């Protein structure tokens, strides 16, 4: 099976700063690839390359088996890669359905006489949300009145509706409570089950492990390792995320000082 996305030895530098070095992983249809790491690990740089915001300096990015170098986010979107950033890029005072279609509003009429097709917009939005199990009472309500989890779910449904093959989610659960995070992760699993390839960026292994099929761990721009789910359990994933070796060395050092 040809991966939807494959990165092979990707590197990115900003002057003398190496933001990414020799990073490799794959994103397959119907799977979730989790990218984990603390702040400064290189997660943001990687997704910006995948999303077309930046271009890589070294290595190769392949989409559907073909080498590509995106010139813009629109270029990435045309290749079926949709990115949902942490700030969501929504207009809080605008209705849910207007945010859903933002930039691609349905119209009726011809030429300069075209009008916004509000009825179709509301109907399609409600149906698209329902297909992902999201039941909103009123798609006319301002999107700013929704909870953080609900706004994330609307953004996921929008990407799925507009034909994304790969969905990149930037820290979708970072600012959410336990219940809201659970709702978002359920919709991540539903997107995966619909055959999308999902890239989940997170610093929380407890959120990544239940939905993840593959785990790429980054530290200061370099890969700590890539694991299939069968190769690592939650405890080991958490230990590596927490810098287990460094913590063990520190504990040993502290004991030496005490004695």
From TrEMBL:
Annotated ranges, domain ABC transporter: 5-245
A family per Pfam: ABC_tran
InterPro entries found in the cross-reference section: AAA+_ATPase, ABC_carbohydrate_import_ATPase, ABC_transporter-like_ATP-bd, ABC_transporter-like_CS, P-loop_NTPase
Keyword line: ATP-binding, Nucleotide-binding
Domain of life: Bacteria
Cited SMART domains: AAA
GO molecular function: ATP binding; ATP hydrolysis activity
Name recorded for this polypeptide: Sugar ABC transporter ATP-binding protein
């Amino acid at each position: 099976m040809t991966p939807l996305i494959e990165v092979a030895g990707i590197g990115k530098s900003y002057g003398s700063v190496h933001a990414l070095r020799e990073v490799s992983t794959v994103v397959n249809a119907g799977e979730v690839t989790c990218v984990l790491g603390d702040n400064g690990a290189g997660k943001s740089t990687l997704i910006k390359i995948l999303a077309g915001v930046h271009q890589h300096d070294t290595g190769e990015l392949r989409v559907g088996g073909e080498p590509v170098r995106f010139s813009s986010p629109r270029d990435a979107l045309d290749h079926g890669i949709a990115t949902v950033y942490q700030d969501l890029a929504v207009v809080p005072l605008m209705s849910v359905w207007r945010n859903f279609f933002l930039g691609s509003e349905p119209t009726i009429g011809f030429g300069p006489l075209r009008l916004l097709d509000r009825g179709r917009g509301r109907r399609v939005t409600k149906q698209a949300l329902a297909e992902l199990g999201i039941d909103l009472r009123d798609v006319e309500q301002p999107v700013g009145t929704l909870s953080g989890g609900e706004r994330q779910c609307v953004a996921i449904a929008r990407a799925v509706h507009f034909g994304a093959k790969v969905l990149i989610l930037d820290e979708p659960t970072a600012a959410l409570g336990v219940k809201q995070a659970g709702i978002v992760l359920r919709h991540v699993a539903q997107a995966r089950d619909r055959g999308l390839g999902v890239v989940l960026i997170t610093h929380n292994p407890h959120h990544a492990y239940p939905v993840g099929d593959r785990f790429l761990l980054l530290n200061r721009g370099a890969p700590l390792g890539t694991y299939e789910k069968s190769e690592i359990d939650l405890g080991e994933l958490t230990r590596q995320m927490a810098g287990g070796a460094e913590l063990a060395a520190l504990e040993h050092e502290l004991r030496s000082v005490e004695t």
